[in-house]
Amino acid sequence: YSMPAILKGQVMVGDFIFSRYRLLLLAIVIVVMTALWLLLHKTSFGRVVRAGVQRPDMVAALGIRLQPYMTAIVVLGVSTAALGGVLFGPIAVVHPAMGTEIMTVAFVVVVIGGLGSFWGVVLAALLVGVVRGITIHFEPAAGEASMYVLMFLVLMFRPRGLLGERIERFE
Q1: Which of 66, 94, 122 is a domain's end point?
Q2: DSSP 3-state assignment of 13?
Q3: Would the pTM count as exceeding 0.90?
Q4: Residue 81 belongs to what domain range?
Q5: Model pLDDT for residues 36-95, shown as the tens digit of each residue
Q6: 57-87: b or e for each residue (b if 16 or more CB lie within 10 Å)?
C-alpha cells in the first residue's frame, strides 16, 4: 500500500533533509518505546514480568501464576512486530520473510547493548545505525561488516555489552 499524500515529501532541518514519513515513524517509535518502558518499569504488571524472568521460582512461591503474564508479553511482542511491519510497508517491499532480514541486525544490537538493558539496546541501535550509515557512505560493500566489527570491539572491552547487567552465575 502507499502512504497518504500528506506524509509524502521532505522537510529540511538546517542542512539535513528528512522524509515526512520517516519523521512520523521516529515519533511513533519514541511513543511506543516510552509506553513499553513505562509498562515494564512503572506498573505492577511489569514488576511481575521482570521478577518472573529473573526468578520464576520466587514468583511462583508468592502464589502468582506467570503463564498469563508471559502470554501477555508474547501478545505484546507480536503486536509490536505487526505494527512495525505495517508502518514499514510504505517504504519497503512487504513479503513473508521480511523479518528475517533484520533478525541478524537485531541480534547484534541486543548483544552490543547488553542483555537485560532496555536503554543499552536503544543506545546500541543508534550506534549500529550511525556506524553502518557512515561506513556505507564511504565504502558501501563494508556496511554489513561494520556492525560485526563494532560488536567485536564492544565485546572485547565489555563482555556484557554497553549497559548489560552483571550476572553472577555466569561470571
Answers
A1: 94
A2: strand
A3: no
A4: 1-94
A5: 999 999 999 999 999 998 899 999 999 999 999 999 999 999 999 889 888 888 888 877
A6: eebeeeeeebeebeeebeeeeeeeeeebeeb
